[in-house]
């Protein structure tokens, strides 16, 4: 897989931001596997008509980031596109 310009620029970045440190702490202390397993039976599976649902773990990570940073639905969407 080819590295994009933004990935190359981010990899060569020397200073870690407060946001990066905070997200690393959340990553280290959150039991993602257990949370996904607890929610999985309630999450839509897709397979029918319409657009397939976004992956459960991705949605869970977005939800937690949204709450930690106090973002609206549009705000978390913008944050994802900016990252």
Describe the structure.
There is one protein chain. The protein is mostly helical and 83 residues long. It has one domain. Helices cover 63% and strands 0% of the residues. The chain starts with a helix and ends with a helix. The model has no long low-confidence stretch (mean pLDDT 87).
Task: Give a summary of the structure in a few sentences.
The protein has about 80 residues and is mainly α.
Which band does the percent of strand residues land in? under 5%
Write down the secondary-structure element order: HHHHH
Q: Major sheet, described briefly?
A: none
Task: Detail the poorly predicted runs.
Answer: none
Number of domains: 1
Topology record:
Elements: H1 5-11, H2 18-29, H3 32-40, H4 56-69, H5 73-82
Brief descriptors of the model:
mainly alpha, 5 helices, 63% helix, 0% strand
């Amino acid at each position: 897989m080819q590295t994009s310009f933004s990935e190359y620029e981010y990899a060569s970045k020397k200073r870690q931001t407060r946001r990066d440190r905070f997200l690393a702490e959340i990553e280290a202390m959150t039991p993602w596997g257990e949370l996904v397993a607890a929610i999985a039976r309630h999450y839509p599976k897709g397979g029918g008509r319409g657009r397939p649902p976004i992956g459960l773990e991705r949605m869970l990570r977005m939800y937690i980031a949204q709450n930690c940073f106090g973002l609206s639905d549009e705000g978390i969407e913008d944050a994802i596109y900016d990252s």
